[in-house]
Structures are given as structure tokens and as C-alpha cells.
Design brief:
This protein is α/β, with parallel strands linked by helices and 443 residues long. It contains 14 helices and eleven strands. It comes from Variovorax defluvii.
């Protein structure tokens, strides 16, 4: 894997490389077979100009970043991975997140492919093709979604930061399946203006990177705040593994990687308790009337579906249309019930600095199992539900989480998720820095 942003910036500062050279490396990677179907629109010349104009002292110093197709770019339509918005009016301004990355010296190289309207964790797109997971060139596997192209742009070396969104795991799922880092910050910390919404309650603007230290840089830019991760040793943090829900139905490869990770962290001094969290059993009832994503996406899409419903991915349209049956009182009840659930969850999590779980319970399955086609719908929705199960808890909690690789060399990627309630971002990043260090150390 190409060096991370931190190492590359050090090389720029030392004069061992320059932004123009690094941009050509990024463009070469973006044009390689590994990036087939990754970019819905390439912006290589724009990237070259930005790299040439950047200064080494800037946080991004002319290095490449990519943007998920649901963010506004001035002068371009915002299709969000769809066909029905491909000729929508051009955006008048960049989304705030994009503007902040540019202002930090980032060089945009293109818009990345995604699940249509961000409504799936699998990453399949019938309009633009499905980018294949970067980890297994021998078997085309799902990239994870909905930020599918963003993940592969980072894993392939085309981009140092892949800007995306996370409503139920759309950053952490593809990060886990592609063996990179995905940080979902507390949603309120980064403005979502200029991003086409899925669920205004759950949407989070965030990014994928190749390391935790890069995730901190990206978050500081996007949130316009300084992270203070602290310097306490791993033994100073109280960690927990939740036995309920998160460990169900793990594939053997995930179970083995997760258990090995816990042994490694405990050997490094980590205190890890096993706890029950019965509040998780309430989620099925809370979302029984459809949940926020269905209701809020239907409110946004209802007129477009009436005009252009035949142009939607049928699997996406089916999920959006579930929101048509939610009654106003059911939505209001859900808002209040969630507030109460969050309060009780925060109380249960208060003794701990971070919770540990597998990001998802599986490694990436072959694309052939879930490719468009009614005969594969059952497999698609089963896999989608499993992929979303663990990370979506954090969105419902209004919390923060990071996924980092925990598999061994030669294994398909497995993600370790560290998570907590809202505004515990800096503690999560602090633990993640140390966990990453231990997991990468020779043993």
C-alpha cells in the first residue's frame, strides 16, 4: 500500500518528493484496472493545477483527495450515484466539507462511485458498475457501501483521503472490507450542507484514510477543530466488548481475527471487560415502523419517484418506499423513543473509554452473489442487513466510531470497530492510535 498522508507530507517537507510527482502517482493509480468503476467523473487536470499551486506547509500540501458523488461541486450536477439526477442543475458552490479540504491544500482528483442515493452497505451500482474490492484481485468481491468508490480510491493509492458519508456504516463498512481506516465522527461536528441527504437524523460527513493519524488530520480539517488524543498508555483506558448482538453470526475468519486482536491488546496492557448491553434488543422494536432512513429519504424522494421511479435501482426504490407508510405519530414516537434510548445507552457506556467489536461480521463476499437481478435479491438483502447491523448501532446512538484493520497479512480484510457515544471522538482516536500501533507491531 502507498505510504500514508503523514509519511508523504514528511517527504515533501524534506524535499524527497513534491506535490506534482505525488499527483502523477495518484492519477496513475486512478487510471489503473484496480480503479475500474471507482470514479464517476475524473478531475485529473484540476488536481494537477491544485497540486502545482499548493504549499508544503499546508495540511494537505497538494495531495489528492476524492469526493463521494453525493457532495456538491460548484458547476457540476450532484447525481449521488443515480441516473435520474445525472442532468440535474449544477451546484452553485462546493459543499462545506469539500471547500475545507481544498482550503487545506487538498487536490481533488474526482467524484467517486457509490450505492445509488447511499441506500445500502453492499456497494453495488447498476448504473455505473460496481468497483471491485481492492484486497482480492483474483475474485471480484463487493467493495462495501455506500462509499464504495471512496474506499477503493484510498486503498488503491489514488487518494490520501476519501470524503464520504456514514448513515448506518457507509464509511466503516467499506473501510473494514478494504483494509483501511474509516472514522465516523459525532455527526454534529462536521456540517452536512451541500451533501444530498439520506437521513437528516443519521447522516454523518466523514472520511476514509490509510492510517489513524491521517484520520485525525482529515477530521481536524472537516470539523475545523483540534483533536487532543492524549498520551496515556493503553493500560490507562477501560475498554469493553459487548456480548449482545455485535458478536452474533461472525464468519470464522472474522471471529479468529477479532479474538487475536483482543489477545494482542490485552498483552499490551489493555483492560478489556465483557459486558451485556440489553438495550440493544430494543432496536428492532424502535425501527419496526421503518426507521429514520426510510421516512426521511421518502420525504426527499417522493416527487422524484413519481416522475422518474423507473430509473431508480429497484433495490433502492424498494427501501425508500417503505417510508411512505410511516405515520406522523409513529415518526414523532420514534424521535422521543430514540432520545430515551440514547440516554440509557450513554449511562451504560459511561464507565468505559471505548467499546470494541468487529466492524462487520463477514469478509467481503463475491460480487456475483449480490449482482443486480431479482434472483439474487434475497442474498443481497441478507448480506446488506448483516453489514449494517453493527455500525448502524452507533448512528442510532448519535455516537462516534472508527474502523481499523485487524487481519493478518495474507488474510481478507477484517475491521476492528472502536466506538462510544457522542463527543467521545478524541478518546476513540487516542485508543485507536495505540491499538493500531500494537496491531501493526511484529509479534
Amino acid at each position: 500500500m502507498r505510504p500514508d498522508l503523514h509519511a508523504t507530507r514528511l517527504a515533501l517537507m524534506a524535499g524527497a518528493s513534491d506535490a506534482r510527482t505525488e499527483m502523477e502517482h495518484s492519477i496513475s493509480a486512478a487510471g489503473s484496472p484496480a480503479c475500474n468503476h471507482v470514479f464517476t467523473r475524473s478531475l485529473f487536470e484540476e488536481g494537477r493545477l491544485a497540486a502545482a499551486a499548493a504549499r508544503p506547509a499546508q495540511p494537505l500540501a497538494g495531495l489528492a483527495f476524492s469526493v463521494k458523488d453525493l457532495f456538491d461541486l460548484a458547476g457540476q450536477p450532484t447525481p449521488a450515484g443515480s441516473a435520474v439526477l445525472s442532468h440535474a442543475p449544477a451546484a452553485k458552490a462546493d459543499a462545506t466539507a469539500v471547500a475545507r479540504l481544498r482550503a487545506a491544500g487538498g487536490a481533488l482528483i474526482g467524484r467517486t462511485n457509490m450505492t445509488e442515493f447511499a441506500f445500502s452497505g453492499v456497494g453495488v451500482n447498476p448504473h455505473h458498475g460496481t468497483p471491485a474490492n481492492h484486497a482480492d484481485p483474483s475474485t471480484p468481491r463487493i467493495p462495501g457501501g455506500s462509499s464504495s468508490g471512496a474506499a477503493i480510491s484510498v486503498a488503491s493509492g489514488a487518494a490520501f483521503i476519501g470524503l464520504g458519508s456514514d448513515t448506518g456504516g457507509s464509511i466503516r463498512i467499506p473501510a473494514a472490507l478494504n483494509g483501511i481506516v474509516g472514522f465516523k465522527n459525532t455527526a454534529r461536528l462536521v456540517p452536512a450542507d451541500g451533501a444530498l441527504p439520506l437521513s437528516t437524523t443519521l447522516d454523518t460527513v466523514c472520511a476514509m484514510t490509510r492510517s489513524v493519524r491521517d484520520a485525525i488530520v482529515a477530521h481536524e480539517i472537516l470539523a475545523a477543530r483540534r483533536v487532543t488524543p492524549g498520551t496515556a498508555p493503553l493500560a490507562a483506558y477501560r475498554l469493553a466488548v459487548v456480548k449482545d448482538l455485535f458478536l452474533d453470526d461472525m464468519e470464522p475468519a472474522v471471529a479468529a481475527a477479532f479474538e487475536r486482536t483482543l489477545r494482542t491488546l490485552r498483552a499490551a496492557g489493555a483492560r478489556i471487560d465483557e459486558i451485556a448491553l440489553p438495550e440493544l434488543a430494543e432496536l428492532r422494536t424502535l425501527n419496526s415502523t421503518g426507521g429514520f432512513s426510510a421516512a426521511e429519504s421518502y420525504a426527499w424522494h417522493r416527487l422524484l419517484l413519481e416522475r422518474s421511479g423507473a430509473g431508480y435501482d429497484p433495490r433502492v426504490a424498494q427501501r425508500i418506499l417503505k417510508g411512505a407508510t410511516m405515520k406522523a405519530h409513529e415518526y414523532i414516537d420514534l424521535v422521543h423513543a430514540r432520545r430515551d434510548w440514547i440516554a440509557r445507552m450513554e449511562s451504560a457506556l459511561a464507565p468505559f473509554d471505548a467499546l470494541l467489536s468487529p466492524t462487520v461480521p463477514m469478509v467481503a463476499p463475491p460480487i456475483a452473489e449480490v449482482a443486480p437481478g431479482e434472483e439474487r435479491d434475497d442474498a443481497f438483502f441478507r448480506i446488506n442487513a448483516l453489514l449494517l447491523r453493527n455500525p448502524s448501532v452507533v448512528n442510532m446512538l448519535d455516537g462516534c466510531a472508527i474502523s481499523l484493520p485487524c487481519h493478518a497479512e495474507g488474510e481478507l480484510p477484517v475491521g476492528l470497530m472502536l466506538w462510544h457515544a457522542a463527543l467521545h471522538d478524541d478518546a476513540i482516536l487516542a485508543v485507536a492510535l495505540q491499538a493500531e500501533r500494537e496491531l501493526q507491531a511484529p509479534h
